[in-house]
Design brief:
With 461 residues, the chain is mainly alpha-helical. It is 80% helix and 0% strand. The chain is built from 22 helices and no strands. It is globular, with a radius of gyration of 22 Å. The protein starts with 23 loop residues before the first helix and ends with a helix.
Length: 461
């Protein structure tokens, strides 16, 4: 491959970062703006997972078996995920045609408003079956916004990150989004300490209502940002050549094979991330030795472990390359998932240690999986193609994960059965990485500065 082809600095896919370098203060502002909406998304995910048992009690008739009511709650969660790919296409099209900033402004409004309104939804005792119906509608709206939010935000940060240090930029943003989950889990833990039945009466509603002011703050921050250099250059080239951008058509016409492969590739992230944010709190509460407060505390520690590992692992992704860090992450997921759940199911100390193991594993997965979301597609379809793959994985695999977890463990009578399901997807991602990873990463190495991709380019030159 000729590494000096396409030397025009204004050509799509090439950026002269030397003349578009941001100051540290500007970069922090861009990362904060991108993380703002993801904060609300993950805050909602954390709150929904921890409040799932209360929502089941409030939104469904008391005559239902508690396990069946919980399954219904997770079923609503799964159904709402179905529309994520549609949201990804809609907002991916906006982001790749008009701009990342424009798409992020709309998604943060949808996500925060829908999340906040869950806190105002009357229970089954007040309005009957309209309660779960309203909950489903709000979850659908929230999922539509989320479908465009995550991939757009990651692309936004990726394009502001300097060559050869993009993993650090994506890692910082990703860790900040998990802070949203950390805040949700922390507030949930505090509110469970309310006297009597205060938490089940109104405490859980306060958790959702807080998404409204969080969203307003995020919207204010996002209004003060600008597009990254790579997307600016792409727009200049489009205007110069009078090119009408068609990211959705280009995705299906030129990149459909990679979208399908990448959807399977992202399966482990979809199932593992959903498992920790929405199933682990319920799993820990089933530990007979842990109180509800202790279970929430262990979940809080798991979230902290995610953030710590992301900060430690992101620089290694820049140093050793995406492919190497992906392989290490998949091996960790395969070998640590069963021990993590096994330890977490026994005793208070075991619950905390198991949560740390699982949280640390998710941190190892987060950096390379989310970096690949932007690195493996060109700027002209980056959000559309990457977002479609991400949301298909989240809808088909991630959205059903809590339901599958409850069903598998209930069917087998063992708390670790679901871990085998997780290991399967880790093995699939590992195989795809070994077969396709080197070629995918090399195609974008001149932009990303990935050391493994640059090495492959030199070998093929």
């Amino acid at each position: 491959m000729n590494t000096h082809a396409n030397t025009n600095p204004l050509a799509p896919g090439r950026v002269d970062f030397e003349h578009d370098e941001l100051s540290p203060r500007q970069r922090r502002r861009m990362i904060t703006a991108a993380a703002a909406g993801n904060f609300v998304e993950w805050y909602d995910a954390g709150v929904y997972g921890i409040a799932a048992t209360v929502i089941a009690e409030q939104m469904f008739p008391n005559s239902l078996n508690p396990t069946f009511a919980l399954l219904n709650t997770y079923a609503l969660f799964a159904i709402s995920y179905i529309l994520r790919p549609a949201g990804g296409l809609i907002f991916g099209n906006i982001a790749d045609r008009v701009g990342r900033k424009h798409a992020l402004t709309i998604t943060i409004i949808m996500t925060s408003v829908a999340t906040g309104l869950i806190g105002l939804t009357p229970g089954f005792g007040a309005i009957g079956w309209a309660a779960p119906a309203i909950l489903l509608i709000l979850r659908v709206v929230q999922s539509m916004g989320t479908g465009g939010e995550y991939s757009t935000a990651i692309s936004f940060v990726y394009e502001h990150g300097p060559t050869g240090r993009k993993a650090r930029s994506v890692g910082v943003m990703t860790s900040m989004t998990f802070v949203g989950f950390l805040v949700g889990a922390g507030l949930s833990t505090l509110l469970t300490l309310l006297p009597g039945d205060a938490y089940s009466t109104y405490g859980w509603r306060v958790l959702f209502l807080l998404a409204l002011p969080f969203g307003m703050i995020g919207l204010y921050v996002r209004k003060r940002t600008e597009e990254g250099a790579e997307f600016k250059r792409l727009q200049i080239e489009r205007n110069r050549n009078d090119v009408h951008a068609t990211p959705v058509a280009d995705t299906f016409r030129l990149y459909w094979k990679r979208v399908l492969s990448f959807t399977a590739f992202l399966g482990i992230w979809a199932v593992f991330s959903t498992m920790l944010t929405n199933y682990l709190p319920t799993f820990l509460k089933n530990n007979p030795d842990m109180s509800s407060t202790e279970a929430n505390g262990a979940n809080l520690v798991a979230s902290a472990a995610i953030v710590v590992v992301i900060f430690l692992y992101a620089p290694l992704a820049d140093r050793f390359g995406l492919r190497t860090t992906l392989i290490v992450s998949m091996v960790a997921a395969i070998t640590l998932t069963i021990p993590g759940f096994s330890v977490a199911s026994h005793g208070v100390i075991g619950g905390f240690i198991g949560a740390i193991i699982l949280g640390g594993t998710k941190g190892l997965l987060a950096v390379p999986m989310l970096l690949s979301l932007s690195q493996l597609f060109p700027a002209k379809v980056r959000v559309t193609a990457g977002g479609l793959s991400y949301n298909l994985a989240q809808s088909i695999i991630g959205g059903t994960a809590p339901f599958v977890a409850v069903w598998l463990n209930s069917f087998s009578g063992k708390p670790t059965t679901f871990a085998i399901y997780v290991m399967f997807f880790a093995a699939v991602t590992l195989i795809i990485t070994l077969i396709c990873g080197r070629r995918w990463i090399a195609e974008t190495a001149e932009i990303s500065g990935d050391v493994g991709g640059l090495k492959t380019l030199k070998e093929n030159a």
